[in-house]
Amino acid sequence: MSSSLIGMFAKHWLPGQCKTRLAKSIGFENAAWLHRRFVQHLIARINPNPFDKQLVFSPPHRQSEFQRMIRNTDWHLHAQSPGDLGQRMQSFFAHAFTAGYQRVVLIGSDSPDLPDAIIQNAFAKLTSHDVVLSPTTDGGYCLVGQRRFVPTMFASIKWSSSRVFHDTTERLAEQNVSFATLGTWHDIDTVDDLQAFMLRSQSSRTTSENQSLLQDVRSVLATHGCLN
Q1: Is pTM, for the whole model, over 0.90?
Q2: Quick one: DSSP state of residue 136?
Q3: What is the rounded average pLDDT of the residues 63-89?
Q4: pLDDT digits 0-9 by tens, 31-60
Q5: Residue 223, CB half-sphere, CA atoms under 13 Å: how many?
């Protein structure tokens, strides 16, 4: 067991139950398929890292499908607890620290091209800060980490608003919790976000794995006449 853990929240890819904003432009089936691809992509990308890895999945009765997804990897499964996003994140961190981890990072599956440098920097900053956050361009955050359990961090936050990052850091400052802000990155929630992802991927040196995801995104956008 490593002293460091990364968890990834992942929802099952049932059409109509995930990526509903994106589905308005490309349809429920394609949105769900892309969501599944994002999860697969992040599992493969993060797998070589030496820290422990947990796929924190929902709903619990879909465990067998998630188990197949992590086959032949170093990932382990952990079911999400009930409750809103804040309650589920709080439960994840509480469980991780109870298990003995000393630095814990959590990401979602909406940022498939989240740079490895941000993840590595998160663990590095947790040697000197209680909390780390990587904000997103829409006012939320795509990564959160803790080196000690901060139980009030996620309470009474208005999730899915443009003030999530602001309100979270304001609360941390009020409670004298030391925190570091990492680089800003991008969620993919809309067709515009998909197009921006393509531009980032095309303009950067990337692995064959990233190129494969880029081709899949391009194919879906082309099918729906959404390529710029």
Answers
A1: yes
A2: B
A3: 96
A4: 999 999 999 999 999 999 999 999 999 999
A5: 12
* Cα–Cα distance list, 8 to 27, 77, 96 (Å): 25, 10, 13
Q: Going along the chain, which residue ranges are E strands?
A: 4-11, 52-58, 75-79, 103-107, 131-135, 141-146, 179-181
What are the domain boundaries of the chain? 4-186
Return d(Cα 24, Cα 43) in angstroms, integer.
27
Report the 10 Å Cβ neighbour count for 161.
13
Distance of CA 223 to the CA centre of its chain: 27
Strand partners, 135: 141
Structure confidence by residue, pLDDT tens digits, 195-213 = 999 888 876 555 566 778 8
- CATH domain 4-186 topology: Spore Coat Polysaccharide Biosynthesis Protein SpsA; Chain A (3.90.550)
> What is the identity of the amino acid at 96?
A
